[in-house]
Amino acid sequence: MDKQKNVANQWYWLADCYRDWGRYQQAVDYQLKELAIRQQLDHQTGVALAYYQLGRIYQVWGKYKDAIKSYQQSRELYQQLDKQKDVANLWYWLADCYRNWGKYQQAVDCQLKDLAIRQQLDDQTGIGNAYYQLDRIYQDWVDTPRPKGAGILGSTRQLAQPGRSQEE
């Protein structure tokens, strides 16, 4: 069992190196090998971490749908394990991914969930980071190119309408 954990750790580090190197497909391949071992070992925290790492690879690669799916799987596992700080971290990464993708309302929604958990945990550093992330989202949202002649107030009012999907 310890040998398998060590093998999983090595797959993790290889995936991490390939991600940093920009060779994303290899990074995904190695990360999936780590995930498979963690699942075989029934190491739920390790499985949750492996899904998170997959999300990071996909996000850097620009494959946002895959990143969101991986982050959600990680968040759900951490929720089942009652690891609230990790759940908050995953809401943060979901918000970051949606912000990178230009889906600002979804980013705000996720970031507010992160903030709520940080407040429940009285995690002052996390609360500060959550507000910082909200500011980044709003800054990117405001800086989004708009049609010529559309004033900033009109554009943001239109974007912020309840029930309005970003994909419209």
From TrEMBL:
<keyword id="KW-0802">TPR repeat</keyword>
<keyword id="KW-0677">Repeat</keyword>
<dbReference type="InterPro" id="IPR011990">
    <property type="entry name" value="TPR-like_helical_dom_sf"/>
</dbReference>
<feature type="repeat" description="TPR">
    <location>
        <begin position="48"/>
        <end position="81"/>
    </location>
</feature>
<dbReference type="Pfam" id="PF13181">
    <property type="entry name" value="TPR_8"/>
</dbReference>
<comment type="similarity">
    <text>Belongs to the Rap family.</text>
</comment>
<keyword id="KW-0963">Cytoplasm</keyword>
<dbReference type="Pfam" id="PF13424">
    <property type="entry name" value="TPR_12"/>
</dbReference>
<protein>
    <submittedName>
        <fullName>Uncharacterized protein</fullName>
    </submittedName>
</protein>
<dbReference type="InterPro" id="IPR051476">
    <property type="entry name" value="Bac_ResReg_Asp_Phosphatase"/>
</dbReference>
<dbReference type="InterPro" id="IPR019734">
    <property type="entry name" value="TPR_rpt"/>
</dbReference>
<dbReference type="GO" id="GO:0005737">
    <property type="term" value="C:cytoplasm"/>
</dbReference>
